[in-house]
TrEMBL record:
Protein name: Alpha-galactosidase
Enzyme class: hydrolase
Matching CDD domains: GH36
Keywords assigned by UniProt, alphabetized: Glycosidase, Hydrolase
Organism expressing this protein natively: Photobacterium angustum
PANTHER family from the UniProt entry: ALPHA-GALACTOSIDASE C-RELATED, GLYCOSIDASE FAMILY 31
Length: 716
């Protein structure tokens, strides 16, 4: 990292202002005894003389006599009556620390602030950075510098919000219905979300958005937050009694879980945030670009994302290698590039009641070994992938019979099962090493390019040697993935937790894609994928075409709607291709080919959630970074509200350029449902980028649960 200046001020008495500048936004941080962000928003050009003067607050009657700042680390001892950033004690003492800055390192894109409280014997490091995509990241590290154990109850990251952030968008969800969003006003009190499920969870995705009233996809001031942590967490947005507001994110520590001996430190996870003054699309552009440049494992950036065939919904636990090889043969014919054997391949695994933990090939199912199948898949020109659920154990397994003490549990209590299974205590080194050895064995013995790393239950009573250990279990999970990646750097990993139960930025640093949802119903997927798209680019979103009769909703969809719904993510097929008829197979082949052709654009371009005048349809566009082309998918979710749906207006194109517009795919009954469709959908047309944005094209008429695909190619 380039250091432009290092401000070393032993006890900063006078306040210093530091500007941290992104592409379009900036942070102005005032440093004195403490750090306060005095501006986080649009970059303001020109000299700033006097601006600090302009921002000095009045002090009303009826409260403390001095102005109290909302600092990066709110402290009760300074009179901040907000949720403090740190709650802890040393046997009942040192419980109200007040830190004073002693040292600031100023980098081109950030600051590292060191503060201390010598009375309490604590040292605090605060890191705050902004990148060229306007993504801010911050975390704290606390060190105990005094004799005596310091017990930590809470330790949070805090960022301020301006008063005009008076509406929030938060997430809710569940298994097969992840990433649902909901709006609420932010006027008094605030919002709090607690996740105690031990994994990122389907229910409490660790992110939220605050913004100006009625912020939308294209407009409004937005502050988006993502807490990069895969375990228990608390997110809050508080409106103080004086109207000021802030966002706070923290790990929820279980009782007694975290304490520091002298000289030991603990860090919060990173809190990622961004400001956009161009609505939710602007926010997504910032996060997507940040993920692409800084979060995704480097070595895989250039490689096109191979099209998957995953066996789960095709055969479930019914594994016959001969048949699986015929599935592979059929997959290759359709253009699949990676073939993944899901759950059911290992010892004792004939259903979901037994076998987890026994990571040995089931010899009765695979008498001739796994190599035969892997070689067959490779000879067909496809990569081979295999499913694991390393952190889990069934009581009906040889592993549990040999090591009943490896359970993550509190002795003396019988905890409820989840999918008939329990969690392994990864803090037990023998258990950790066993899992590493088993994964390493398979990855070293077979040509495995990909692991689907699943995690199908929530964590109840996580304990190591009787002590609460939820935080550390998550850290050990990261360690296990990191160790595997270090030993097998070319292997790609998918993060799956019963679908989308473990999707967050911290997991993404060590994995390559997410299994978005166990729900392959194209209609449901539209909302789930849209919710996920606010924070994640399409290439990390596992999107599979399932069977026409969806297994999770029993709803039926034709291949066109399924194909176009899966088209823009990391595409795959989730069914048994041998059993499908010729027409369906031709359909798979068609969308596989379309995806391959469009993949370079879809996985590098800018995503736009295109506003529509009618909520019955949802429009998704991807525009090339050089604006040379764009792909637009119109999905008709329910019946259109009116018989005509106005115009399709596409943002993000080069306004000065001319584009050729053509339809690449539409429902097979497209012409039968109306007298006639807009002529441009047949003959194409040529329009300027400005026209496309401001005026648009007459919307075609589509049946509910159908979609069409349009291309814009720049002509000049
Ligand atoms: C849950 C996953 O989400 C599914 O895709 C599948 O891998 C099953 N687990 C296997 O048990």
């Amino acid at each position: 990292m380039l250091i432009t200046s290092v401000l070393r001020c032993s006890k900063v008495m006078d306040k210093t202002l530091i500007e941290l500048v992104g592409h379009q936004t900036q942070l102005i941080v005032e440093l004195g005894e403490y750090a306060e962000i005095v501006h986080w928003g649009k970059k303001v050009s020109g000299a700033h003389a006097g601006f600090r003067q302009a921002l000095l607050r009045p002090v009303p009657y009826g409260r403390l006599d001095n102005d109290v700042a909302m600092t990066l680390h709110p402290e009760l001892g300074r009179g901040v009556f907000s949720s403090p950033a740190l709650e802890g004690h040393r046997n009942g003492q040192d419980w109200a620390p007040v830190f004073t800055i002693i040292d600031v390192e100023h980098y081109l894109n950030g600051i590292v602030i060191k503060s201390e409280d010598n009375n309490a014997g604590l040292c605090l490091k605060t890191e705050l950075f902004i990148d060229r995509h306007d993504v801010v990241k911050t975390r704290h590290t606390l060190t105990n510098t005094k004799v005596g154990i310091y017990q930590i109850n809470r330790f949070a990251n805090t960022l301020p919000l301006p008063e005009r952030a008076n509406e929030i968008m938060t997430y809710y969800g569940r298994w097969v219905n992840e990433f649902q969003t909901v709006r609420a006003p932010l006027a008094h009190g605030g919002y709090q979300q607690e996740n105690r499920r031990g994994r990122t969870s389907h229910e409490h995705y660790p992110a939220l958005v605050a913004g100006s009233k009625s912020f939308g996809e294209m407009s409004g001031d937005i502050w988006g937050f993502h807490f990069a942590w895969s375990g228990n967490h608390r997110l809050r947005v508080d409106v103080k009694a004086d109207g000021r507001r802030y966002m706070q994110a923290e790990v929820i520590y279980l009782p007694g879980e975290e304490s520091l001996e002298k000289g030991k430190s603990i860090s919060t996870p990173w809190l990622y945030a961004t400001h956009s003054f161009e609505g939710l699309n602007g926010m997504s552009h910032h996060f997507h670009s940040h993920i692409r440049e800084y979060i995704l494992p480097r070595s895989f950036k250039e490689k096109p994302r191979p099209i998957h065939l995953n066996t789960w919904e095709g055969i479930y636990f019914d594994h016959d290698p001969e048949y699986i090889m015929s599935m592979a043969t059929q997959s290759a014919k359709m253009g699949v590039e990676r073939f993944i054997i899901d759950d059911g391949w290992f010892k004792g695994r004939n259903g979901d009641k037994a076998g987890l933990g026994d990571w040995f090939l089931c010899e009765s199912k695979y008498p001739a070994g796994l190599k035969l199948v892997v070689d067959h898949v490779n000879q067909l020109g496809m990569e081979f992938g295999l499913w694991f659920e390393p952190e889990m154990i069934n009581k009906d397994s040889d592993l549990f019979r040999a090591h009943p003490d490896w359970l993550l549990a509190v002795e003396g209590y019988e905890q409820p099962t989840g999918r008939n299974q329990y969690v392994i205590d990864l803090q037990n080194n023998d258990a950790f090493n066993y899992l590493f050895e088993r994964l390493d064995y398979f990855l070293s013995s077979y040509n495995i390019a990909y692991i689907k790393w699943d995690m199908n239950r929530e964590v109840v009573q996580p304990a190591h040697l009787g002590h609460a250990a939820g935080h550390n279990q998550t850290l050990r999970y990261y360690d296990l993935v990191d160790k595997i990646r270090l030993r097998h750097p070319s292997v790609e990993i998918e993060s799956c937790a019963a679908g989308g139960g473990r999707i967050d930025f911290e997991v993404l640093k060590r994995t390559h894609r997410f299994w978005t949802s166990d729900n392959n119903d194209a209609l449901e997927r539209q909302t789930i994928q849209r919710g996920m798209s606010y924070f994640f680019p399409p290439e990390v979103m596992g999107c599979h075409i399932g069977a026409s009769l969806c297994h999770s909703t029993r709803r039926r969809h034709n291949i066109e709607f399924r194909g176009l719904t899966a088209l823009y993510g990391h595409m795959g097929i989730e069914l048994d291709p041998v059993k499908e008829d010729q027409k369906e197979r031709q359909g798979f082949e068609r969308y596989i080919n379309l995806h391959k052709k469009l993949r370079p654009l879809l996985h590098s371009g800018r995503t736009w959630r295109v506003p529509t005048d009618d909520d019955s349809h949802q429009i998704h566009a991807v525009v090339a970074t050089d604006q040379s082309e764009a792909i637009v998918i119109i999905s008709q979710l329910t019946m259109p509200t009116h018989s005509l749906s106005g115009c399709l207006r596409i943002p993000g194109l080069d306004e000065q350029a001319k584009y050729r517009v053509s339809v690449l795919d539409h429902p097979s009954n497209y012409d039968d449902i109306v007298n006639y469709q807009p002529p441009w959908t047949k003959l194409g047309c040529e329009l300027s980028g400005e026209w496309c944005k401001e005026v648009g094209l007459a919307m075609p008429i589509l049946d509910a649960e159908s979609a069409m695909l349009i291309r814009f190619e720049r002509l000049n």
